[in-house]
Amino acid sequence: MQDSRAGGAPARLRIGYLGRPPHPSFFEAARAHPELELVEIAPSESGEAMRAQLRSCHAYYVRASRQELPRPMHVTAEFLAAVPNLLAAVSSGAGFDPIDVAACTDAGVAVVNQAGANAQGVAEHAVGMMLALLKRMPETAAAMRAGRAEDRAAFMGREIAGRTVGLVGIGHVGTRVAAILRAAFGCRVLAADPYLDAATVAARGAEKVELPTLLAESDVVSLHCPYDATTRGMFGAAAFAAMRRGAVFVTTARGGIHDEAALLEALESGHLAGAGLDVWVDEPPPTDHPLLAHPRVIATQHTAGVTEESRRRIARYAVEAFAEIAAGRLPPRLQNPQALERYRARWAEAFGRAPAF
């Protein structure tokens, strides 16, 4: 087997992308790798026309947000059948909602994301929402704009110091949130994550508990789990009812994990004190969405990870992944290792030599 690290030149890797990448530094970083050829896919009303432009490409740089990407360009089994030369689908972010991982695995296509690149930005956003909701900032701002002169004690807030915060999922973002909460505020941090054992959760700064315990004991519940078949609709009426009365709900994960109508009811009934929502079923949500107008909701438009620093890291991570693919090495942050055997054979067929893994 020829080791591309030891002497084989990197393969010429054609990368198709639709629309501008998350940050212009993507192009700057790519220029340092002459083996990478970027192919801009011209937008078209016809999905077939856009797919046709990808047929000569080995890799596809996929927009991470499912609603910012035209449906025909989502990576499905049908899509993959139309672009048979594709070796890798590389998400432009930590999420990869538009990519059907099972279909890629069946086709021998590697799926790669940029997990961790935006962890600091998203963690800061989540903690900021927690602080603002506990101090009732949205309510006081709404009252002032409406010209309501009320006794300041009507907006009595709470401090986060020493409180219990429950994290649903403790990956890159959850780990950073736990570190901030413990170091800055001395919080007790609980985490419900079915994929990690207690020792791993402890190493990431939290106490492993099951979801019912987390809901019952947390003053703040913050979602940091992926959107998939196991989490879709996980937070509905029953989950909100199981939370402490007066608790705060925050999500910077993905829309669809929580039921928006059930959340509204929990707020309207007074069971929950507030909600911080960066993600929505429809993004952006319609302007008449009742949660947008609610005085105890902080609403942002999936911008938790949209920082200069995060976007630069995301761009750099993606280029590094493409460079590893071109060199015939194992791509980082691979989401479907089950595809490796077929991916290895397809890479060898495309470039006329065995990869280095």
From TrEMBL:
It holds the Pfam family 2-Hacid_dh_C. This is 3-phosphoglycerate dehydrogenase. The keyword Oxidoreductase applies. Residues 33-332 form the D-isomer specific 2-hydroxyacid dehydrogenase catalytic domain. Residues 127-304 form the D-isomer specific 2-hydroxyacid dehydrogenase NAD-binding domain. InterPro entries: D-isomer_2_OHA_DH_cat_dom, D-isomer_DH_CS, D-isomer_DH_NAD-bd, NAD(P)-bd_dom_sf. Keywords: Oxidoreductase. Belongs to the D-isomer specific 2-hydroxyacid dehydrogenase family. PANTHER family: FORMATE DEHYDROGENASE 1, HYDROXYPYRUVATE REDUCTASE. The keyword Oxidoreductase applies.
